[in-house]
């Protein structure tokens, strides 16, 4: 497996984690517009933490949800899933930094680097799945209330933060898959193995040549030289 694919997966997963971190505090998870005249037209937008309202003049007020226990169950679950996704992403980012073959942190051997990179990829995949489930669950409740003719409350539409979160989750999953592909790295892709093979082959070849030479060759050369005296060449 190419090192470029592993590095590409790391940066894609890091980008997905950054986008998940931007999605969580974004105020536009769901949006509703109440039409009226120029002054009374107002826009209501909410996220997992607070609700805001603004009028056509640009004046807006925000208030946090008063009690966590008074919230709907799916909002509490979405909070937990999004926070879990970000924590898993940070842990995967740390392990991926150590496990990349293009880095030299901690003196980790190459085989252990592959395991760390695969573990980081699995964490990024879990983070992306948690973010995908949270955002899809939230969007499902929005569409369910919007198309329910008997729903008495305010009907909302999907906000831009949901599309950002879906994109972030897909990037985290894609980066995790690229990192997990390092666990399928064969022995031919191992740089340490590829550099050690020529050395072993040359050592074996030199040992084989040494055994093939007759042991008496050098003795014959010395004896033939000894038949002539020192003055034979004068």
Quick tags:
5 strands, five-stranded antiparallel sheet, 234 residues, alpha+beta
Concise overview:
This protein is an alpha+beta fold.
General description of the model:
It is a single chain. The chain has helices at 3-23, 73-99, 110-146, 160-180, 191-212, 217-226, and strands at residues 30-34, 42-46, 50-55, 60-64, 157-158. The chain is an alpha+beta fold. Strands 4-3-2-1-5 form a 5-stranded antiparallel sheet. α1 (3-23) packs antiparallel against α4 (160-180). The longest helix has 37 residues, at 110-146. Residues 187-199 and 216-226 have low confidence and may be disordered.
Main β-sheet: number of strands, strand sense, barrel status?
5 strands, antiparallel
Strand content: 5-15%
Mean pLDDT score: 79
Strand order of the largest sheet: 4-3-2-1-5
Please state the CA-atom Rg, rounded to the nearest Å. 34 Å
* Span of the ends, CA to CA: 70 Å
Q: Give the low-pLDDT segments.
A: 187-199, 216-226
- The count of strands amounts to 5
């Amino acid at each position: 497996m190419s090192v470029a694919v592993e590095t590409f997966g790391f940066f894609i997963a890091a980008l997905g984690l950054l986008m998940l971190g931007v999605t969580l505090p974004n105020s536009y998870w769901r949006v509703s517009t109440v039409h009226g005249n120029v002054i009374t037209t107002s826009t209501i937008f909410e996220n997992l933490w607070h609700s805001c309202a603004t009028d056509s003049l640009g004046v807006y007020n925000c208030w946090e949800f008063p009690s966590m226990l008074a919230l709907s169950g799916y909002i509490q679950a979405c909070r937990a899933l999004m926070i879990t996704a970000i924590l898993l992403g940070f842990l995967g980012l740390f392990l991926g930094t150590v496990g990349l073959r293009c880095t030299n942190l901690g003196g980790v051997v190459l085989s252990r680097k592959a395991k760390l990179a695969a573990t980081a990829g699995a964490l990024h995949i879990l983070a992306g799945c948690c973010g995908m489930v949270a955002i899809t669950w939230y969007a499902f409740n929005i569409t369910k209330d919007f198309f329910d003719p008997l729903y008495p409350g305010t009907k909302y539409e999907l906000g831009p933060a949901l599309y950002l979160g879906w994109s972030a989750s897909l990037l985290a999953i894609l980066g995790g898959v690229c990192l997990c592909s390092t666990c399928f790295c064969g022995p031919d892709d191992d740089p340490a193995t590829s550099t050690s093979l020529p050395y072993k082959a040359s050592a074996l070849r030199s040992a084989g040549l040494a055994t093939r030479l007759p042991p008496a060759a050098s003795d014959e050369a010395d004896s033939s030289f000894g038949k002539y005296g020192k003055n034979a060449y004068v």
